[in-house]
């Protein structure tokens, strides 16, 4: 048990000191990013007004349309239920979630009733259709707790504990280390495997070199 703890601590240290490969996700006006990788987003999480800096790998996002449209002679807000999808980002990718061009309340209502088309635009100008699903919920305010709604979605659609690549974080490793009773090493080994499998090639090389020097 002691040796496993030492190895896990080494993994954590190597991941912390290795350079982080970054990509960015942003959205056009009227597209609200509600959650990233199962966590609700707050204003402080944005790098700029509507830009998120993330690590490379797979990310799960929850978005909705929330914009000003005309309703008769007045301005009104049209909002939709959340949509959930995943995107796999490479180093230095810069993607923008495009908003549909909607002018009136009736146009927006008809557009989303037919089925929205969500699109990602990359830094080179290329575009990619988003393969999304509508996020469902129960109760009077099903999306008041967006994290709970995402967790329920993942439990249903990803029963084997779906975790986006970049979520194999040191905090998860630390929690496993603290909560695993002595003699139950499987969870620790799985955590080590998860960290290693989601490390960058440079991080994997450093991990191998470190293990090679262990007694």
Describe the structure.
The protein has 215 residues and is an alpha+beta fold. It folds into two domains: 23-157, no CATH class; 183-214. It is built from six helices and eleven strands. It has helices at 2-17, 105-114, 146-157, 170-179, 186-197, 201-212, and strands at 22-27, 31-36, 39-40, 51-55, 57-71, 74-79, 83-89, 94-98, 119-121, 127-129, 133-134. Strand 2 (31-36) and strand 3 form a beta hairpin. The longest helix has 16 residues, at 2-17. It is elongated. The two termini are 15 Å apart.
Q: What's the total helix number?
A: 6
Q: What percentage of amino acids are in beta strands?
A: 25-35%
Compute the separation of the termini in Å. 15 Å
H and E order: HEEEEEEEEHEEEHHHH
Mean of the pLDDT scores? 76
Shape, principal axes of CA atoms: elongated
| Total DSSP E strands | 11
What are the low-pLDDT stretches, counting only 5+ consecutive residues below 50? Answer: 165-184
The biggest sheet, with number of strands, parallel, antiparallel or mixed sense and barrel status, is:
6 strands, antiparallel
Structural class: alpha+beta
Q: Bin the helical content.
A: 25-40%
Number of domains: 2
The rounded Rg comes to 21 Å
């Amino acid at each position: 048990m002691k040796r496993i703890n030492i190895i896990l601590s080494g993994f954590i240290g190597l991941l912390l000191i290795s350079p982080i490969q970054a990509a960015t996700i942003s959205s056009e006006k009227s597209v609200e990013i509600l959650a990233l990788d199962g966590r609700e987003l707050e204003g402080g999480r944005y790098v700029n007004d509507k830009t998120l800096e993330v690590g490379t790998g797979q990310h799960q996002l929850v978005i909705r349309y929330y914009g000003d449209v005309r309703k008769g002679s007045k301005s009104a807000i049209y909002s939709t239920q959340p949509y959930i999808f995943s995107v796999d980002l490479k180093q230095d990718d810069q993607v923008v979630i495009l908003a549909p061009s909607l002018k009136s309340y009736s146009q927006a209502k008809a557009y989303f009733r037919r089925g929205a088309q969500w699109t990602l635009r990359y830094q080179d100008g290329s575009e990619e259709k988003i393969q999304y699903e509508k996020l469902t919920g129960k109760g009077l305010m099903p999306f008041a707790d967006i994290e709970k709604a995402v967790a329920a979605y993942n439990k249903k659609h990803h029963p084997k504990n779906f975790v986006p690549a970049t979520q194999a974080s040191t905090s998860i490793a630390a929690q496993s280390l603290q909560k695993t009773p002595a003699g139950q090493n499987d969870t620790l080994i799985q955590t080590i495997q998860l960290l290693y499998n989601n490390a960058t090639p440079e991080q994997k090389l450093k991990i191998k070199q470190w293990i090679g020097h262990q007694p």
